[in-house]
Design brief:
The model has no long low-confidence stretch (mean pLDDT 92). By secondary structure, this protein is α/β, with parallel strands linked by helices. The strands form two sheets. Strands 5-6-7-3-8-9 form a six-stranded mixed β-sheet, sandwiched between helices. The protein has two domains: 182 residues, Rossmann fold, CATH 3.40.50.300; 71 residues, no CATH class. The chain has eight helices and nine strands.
């Protein structure tokens, strides 16, 4: 596709184990355009995280083609094409929030006088201004995840890979972070790939929803989300939201019955 920033074609990924080979991804073909917010949803073990890790060159496909920014994943990784937000915030407890966010910049060799302005900018994006001197243990779980997102944004990569970052949070905090993430996406125009187990979360956040089957991981449905760009939380009560949610649910059911 002309504007595809991530492109997979007949992608297969097999993990070799002592007992038996595990087919994590099977014949996965997908194009993700620049600026899209794409959610991956499916049962545990269906390959959602594996696909993200393949994009990030943390797993190597067994066959098929995968490109990121027109490059092989390992080349894109070297060019720092993406930021990665894991399920756990993964902040270093001995570094305050400022120094956690600045760590990638230090590793990449940014000039010392450049770093404060960058950290200030991304802290503002995730609404953590004033918390830069706090340590991770002094912040709530939701604030720690926002700091993790800020760290991933610090070097201004085009792509943000997010592996179920809000899964361990309570519903109220999760709703708030969903709103903030949607605002962040609109502000930065990043391409976001987002793994979730939550149908409402996938429908609320995404421009496109990729429904995956149980192992071996296959794409059952790709749903173009028809909801308007402006999405207050109350939109989840609308007929259109319920309709899209139902299609996701039907895709998940058909995946389980797939032979």
């Amino acid at each position: 596709m002309k504007n595809a920033i991530i492109s997979a074609e007949k992608l297969n990924l097999i993990f070799e184990t002592a007992d038996d080979d595990v087919v994590a991804l099977k014949d996965v073909s997908l194009n993700i355009d620049k600026g899209e917010f794409v959610s991956f949803i499916g049962p545990s073990g269906c390959g959602k995280t594996t696909f993200l890790r393949a994009i990030a060159s943390l797993e190597k496909p067994s066959s098929g083609n995968l490109s990121v920014n027109g490059l092989l994943p390992e080349e894109a990784r070297k060019k720092r094409a993406y930021g990665y937000v894991f399920q756990a915030a993964g902040l270093y407890p001995w570094r305050n929030i400022y120094r956690n966010i600045s760590l990638p910049l230090e590793i990449m060799g940014y000039k010392k006088n450049e770093i404060p302005g960058i950290v200030e900018k991304v802290l503002k994006l995730v609404d953590l201004t004033g918390f830069e001197k706090k340590f991770p243990w002094q912040l709530s779980g939701g604030m720690q995840q926002r700091a993790s997102i800020a760290r991933a944004l610090s070097f201004d990569a085009d792509i943000l890979l997010m592996d179920e970052p809000f899964g361990a949070l309570d519903e109220i905090v999760r709703d708030h972070l969903n709103e903030q993430l949607l605002k962040l996406w609109k502000t930065t125009n990043k391409t976001i790939c987002f793994v979730t187990h939550s149908i409402p979360e996938a429908v609320y956040l995404s421009t496109k929803i990729v429904v995956m089957s149980p192992r071996p991981g296959r794409i059952i449905d790709v749903i173009e989300n028809t909801l308007p760009t402006d999405r207050p939380l109350e939109i989840r009560d609308s007929k259109e939201f319920i309709s899209v949610s139902q299609r996701v649910r039907e895709g998940l059911r058909s995946g389980h019955s797939y032979e």
